[in-house]
Structures are given as C-alpha cells and as structure tokens.
User: Fold these one by one.
Assistant:
Number 1:
Amino acid sequence: MTDDTKKSGSNVAPLRAPRPCPECGRPSHREHYPFCSDRCRNVDLNRWLSGSYAIPVADDEAKADDDER
Ligand SMILES: [Zn+2]
C-alpha cells in the first residue's frame, strides 16, 4: 500500500479565505469570525441595536406630535 503519495501533497486548501474584520480591518479570528475579536463583534451588534439600522419612526414622531399642541 503506497497511498502516501497522495497524502503528502501539500495542496491543503484553507477552510475559509482570510477576511479582514469589518470593524477594524484586522485579520478576522476563527473564533469570532467574521470579526477579529469579541469586542468588534459587540461593536457591530451594538450598532444594530442602537438604531443605525432600525427604523427610528414610532417614538420620535409620536413625541413630536404630542408636543405640538
Ligand atoms: Zn476588529
């Protein structure tokens, strides 16, 4: 059995292509993919939660309307 020839080929493809962290641009970490660290992931998450992506309509408009007597 000489199947070794196939195994010894150093043609190992990486699981994922390295991608820069969307927050800081540093190479992403496997554990926090696609971010480089837990912090960057939280930053992104916070951005979502803080409303940059949300629709800031209901509360603000309702208040403005209420103030205008
Ligand atoms: Zn980062």
Number 2:
Amino acid sequence: MLEIKTPLELIGEFKRLDSIIDFNRPRIELDMGCGKGRFTTELAKRYPEALVMGADIKLDRLRKLNGKAARADCSNVEALHCLGWELFGTQLPDHTIDRVHVICPDPWPKERHRRNRMLSSEFVYRVTRKIKKGGSLHLATDDLPYLEWIKTVTSQLPFLEPDQSVLADIADVQTEFEMNFATQDKPVIHLGFRVLA
Ligand SMILES: C[S@@+](CC[C@H](N)C(=O)[O-])C[C@H]1O[C@@H](n2cnc3c(N)ncnc32)[C@H](O)[C@@H]1O
C-alpha cells in the first residue's frame, strides 16, 4: 500500500512539500480535490516519468486513490491529505508544477454559500503562482452558474490565457464524478488555460 502524505502536519513549520517528496522529476501534475483518484491514476499511467500528486481533504478517498495506483503499478503517485488553501499557501514551492487540475470542485451553488467555493480569485491566483511559466491550469464543472463564476474569476488574472490545447492529451479521461454526471445527462465543461508569467 502506498503512503499518504499529510502536509497538514507541516503547518507552523514553514516546511515545504518538496522536503518530503522528491520534486526533481521531468514533469509534475497535481489533481486538486482528486476524490477517489480515477483521473490521478490515469495521468500517472500516461506519464510514468512524472510526479503525479492527488490532493484531497477526505482520507477515505485518498485511500481509494492509493489502492487504484497500486493496482495499476504506478509508483509515481503521491496522495496528499490537505486543504487547498494550505497546499497553495506555503506548502508548495512557487513555479514548480507543470499542470494543475481542479475537476468538479464542490460548487456551493447558493449565493449565501458562495464564500465556501474553492475557486475564488484569490485561490486561483495562488494556484497559478505554483505553476511553471508556460505550464497550464485545468478547471472543470458540471454546474453552469459555477462555470460562469470560473470564467469571471480567471478573466481577472492577466497572466492566464484561455487555451483548450492544454487538455488535448487527456480529452478522453473521465473522473468518477464526471462518469456519474454522464449517466444523468449532465455534461462536465472543461476549461484550459496557459500560465504566461
Ligand atoms: C465533487 S468531488 C470531485 C472529485 C474528483 N475531482 C472527481 O471529479 O471525481 C470534490 C472533491 O474535492 C475535495 N475538496 C473540496 N474542497 C476541498 C478543499 N478545500 N481542500 C481539499 N479538498 C477539497 C472533496 O473532498 C472531494 O473529494
């Protein structure tokens, strides 16, 4: 069984994740809110030379990710038990990730719950600071008002350029939630962005 790293333990120490994980890899992918890890594992299979991190606050889901990765013989997966805010605060070094995926985050559709949404402009700003120049960001949701919210938030960041070509290599991969939504005829819309600076 693969290990689950808990960066939460690093809070207050200003120790970064690259002190407990080898970041010296030709490519680094991060699936934020990875859930049960279908997508994370598929990425790890496609890019065996890469470090593929799956991050989630739910431990039971990370155990499922590790189970899938072990069955697929992927030793390049790291399961991170953490909160998005902390991960994209001090825990990740700046400008080190090639591509970050945030797929079907909880949309918190009601206006009064809006502040619970993962994708605030501050959060997206923090995420992009962790991505290499020329790297990319992948955001996806089934929820149309949330999609509009994402477009508003991303348009406020001048160093993010919409670019669907950054998703070409994974256009055929579906997450668990995406597969569930497909059975309900709810398409998930994927947005790709290039990080310019
Ligand atoms: C709707 S699920 C989608 C899971 C997966 N991306 C998929 O599409 O199948 C959202 C996931 O994000 C995680 N999550 C939500 N907010 C989070 C946060 N602030 N920090 C870490 N994980 C979070 C949840 O625990 C959950 O597993």
